[in-house]
């Protein structure tokens, strides 16, 4: 972004924050030339993302849908609203390509990948409803792999009943 003081185009982002109920992101930036700090605001509405569905149809990206999916997957898990907002922002960063278009399957995979990083129970829950995992065998195999990868789960997780497929 162009520095409002010296016009330099190079800056570093110091902090990113979701504001206005998740409708915008405010980033604090620092000019690499003059060190002046300034803020930029990004709004989803200003840069619409288009989702290409399996059928080939295009539809506008629906943030509420992604948010809702995460809320279901993380139900009962230690994530509050602002944590989930943070995950949505992270996902949007990951799926937003240069073209402004993304395949719906890429969104699903991005969600899977992120949940795998942050919460294994939520990951398995989401995987169980995600189309690529609609075979119960796949789901169970994946669960077994996770158990091997991560060693014994913390006691808190062990008590949870497995998510129903
Ligand atoms: Zn500057």
Structure notes:
The protein is of the alpha+beta class and about 160 residues long. The chain folds into 2 domains: about 1-45; about 50-160. Helices cover about 40% and strands about 20% of the residues. It has helices at about 65-75, 80-95, 105-120, 120-130, 135-150, 155-160; strands at about 10-20, 25-30, 35-45, 50, 60, 100-105. α1 (about 65-75) crosses α2 and α2 (about 80-95) packs across α3. The longest helix has 15 residues, at about 80-95. The N and C termini lie far apart (about 45 Å). Zinc ion binds near residues 8 and 36.
Could you tell me how far the N terminus lies from the C terminus, measured between alpha carbons in angstroms? 46 Å
The structure class reads: alpha+beta
**What's the mean pLDDT score?**
79
Ligands in the structure?
zinc ion
β content, as a range? 15-25%
Relative helix content: 40-55%
The DSSP helix count reads 6
Q: Give the topology string: H per helix, E per strand.
A: EEEEEHHEHHHH
**What ranges have pLDDT less than 50 throughout 5 or more consecutive residues?**
150-160
Enumerate the strands of the largest sheet in spatial order, edge to edge or round the barrel. Answer: 1-2-3
General shape: globular
The figure for the number of domains is: 2
What is the C-alpha radius of gyration, as a whole number of Å? 19 Å
